[in-house]
Amino acid sequence: MNRRALSLFVVLWTSGCGYHFTAGGAPLPEGIRAVRVPVFANKTAEPGLEAVFTDAMRLQLVRAGLDSPPNAEAEIRGEILSVSAAGTLLTTTNALASYRLYSEVHVRLLKNGRTLADAAVTGFTDFLPGVDVLQTEANRGAALQRLAATLAHDGYERLATGW
After folding, report:
1. How many independent structural domains does the chain possess?
2. Main-chain dihedrals φ then ψ at residue 77, nearest 5 degrees
3. Rounded mean pLDDT, 77-88
């Protein structure tokens, strides 16, 4: 390494380059720093989705650096409006190559019972069929976890930005 490159490296290293870590996600309106998330309402016929989507939103709040005490004055309420899966691709031998999982979720940010923001978010993710029903269901479950995380992130961002 020549002297000039070394000097540049030292200057950048000691100045910190302006790079720093921050909590993920935009701040919520009215300076909210603590939010509780009651169990989402499941408006679908599929049991157990409320746990998956509620956990995903709670994890999103952790990523955003927010506290989630049970007595927080603000809360995010969610409703899972739909979830469905359909085959997406056929191979040249007419075998199913993948599935696409869709979902729609509605989230509202409330403070002292007053709605500050609400958003409907939709999304999809793909998953592969397994060699048997159990593996296909395991793949579907993993896809559902990914989709819930994506919708929790998108929902949070929409609540935070009012978009």
Report:
1. 1
2. -105, 140
3. 94
